[in-house]
Prior knowledge:
The protein is built from six helices and five strands. With 181 residues, it is an alpha/beta fold.
Amino acid sequence: MNQKNLIDPDSVLLYIDETHIRPYHVLRTTWSEVGRQKQVPTFGHHAHVSLFDAVNVHDGETVLYQAGAANATTFLDFLRVLKERYPDRLIVLVLDNARIHHAKMVREFLREEGRSFHFIYLLPYSPQLNPIERLWKWLKDTVIANVFHKDQNDIAQAIARFVDYIHERPKEVLQRLGCAV
């Protein structure tokens, strides 16, 4: 049986998560000339961009939302973006057990929007069960590994280029997530 037939056509199944992109936290092994170690400058402050993302593992479509922080308020903003993107559909979200996903304001929102959302929580401490973690790795390898970003705007621009790239290549997204058939 085809997995796509298991999902009600009036619903959409999305894996979601949030992350922070900081300019300094991903250094990878790289090639350099013998005797000349690669230098990656830093500026000693903590500029970052918080991201929420949802990925449909059936078609590779992603919905990315940038925020100044990852908290219950911005999570609700992200849920509203998803509701706008998929109006009149049941949005089934597979997500981890982060505090912001269980916040009082989120529970109240779900009581009001109960017909629009259904949450499926992953087991605690099981990021390997969420394919979006592989998207985060790809993003960080592409955007910040061994790269210096001078400020938050520079980080946001690099993320925007990555998002444009993946939106044009849903099949590659599925391959990277390990969900391609």
